[in-house]
Amino acid sequence: MHEALIHWTTGTAGLCFLPSRGRLLQATVDETEAFWVNPDGLEQFHPGGDRAWAGPEIDWFWKCRGQADLGQYVVAETLDPGSWSTEQATDGFCRWRQSCTLRHLHRDARLHIEMTRSYTLVTPQDRTLFGDCIAFQTENELRILEGTMGQPVDFWSLLQVPAGGRMLVATGKPPVFQDYLESIAPEHHAATDRRLELSITGRHQYKVGLPADVVTGRMAYIRPVASRAMVVFRQFTPMPWRPYCDVPLANIDAPGDAVQVYNDGGEFGGFGEMEYHTPALTLGAGNDRLLDTNLTIVGIVETADLDAWKKHWLD
User: What CATH number does residue 89 fall under?
Assistant: First the structure.
């Protein structure tokens, strides 16, 4: 039997949720889908949409060190698909919770954590240059219940999008980034004093990260759709005064990154990812709980208005 999905609609827009995975699966505006959904089915380890993982990736996911080897990448089943329970599901609000145990892949360390996600349908206070759109607020809570003293963990939000557009990361200074896989080709990124733009092709695998003291907490994915553009805008709060724990395999002593962008090369389906991390919690450091909130607006923008949209929303 197929799982029952949860649907919200407002005007010409809608949201679709996958309760068993604690995630927003799809957003649709004017009959156009905004997120990537796995065509091979929702039972796959990455069905698509907006999901929650936990970092640092080097501790929980990579069995190798140094050079990245995708054959040595694992996703703990306790984390995803995990075991999400529905605490509340009404029209315009839903909340899911799960607890899971994460085990370090390179030393004798573990954490038992609890993750809570809630989605609230909101009316954006500002919808300048958006046509049809839908907006929602996501609140994420992470708690360490028990585990190995000194072990860090963070809340990791990943939103999958279809190939064919550009990922834009707003920065408060000329952007600097580090590679997590093979170096990104020059033709796939461009930078200004206030923004990093990356091509999401679904054919050239790369992953880059930017630190919290560079990003402003605003990201967008812009994809041409007929004569208009589908825009996914996300706003969150970077905290450069706090430690971040997600770093590349090849540079594990580097400061952690707050924002990451992944472009799949076709190995997993050919999509892009808009990712951000919270600051780290460390068991024994007096901080065993964090709250994180983001605002996401999904909507249609006229092609002629895109430059003005970028200036208003990102600069």
Answer: 2.70.98.10
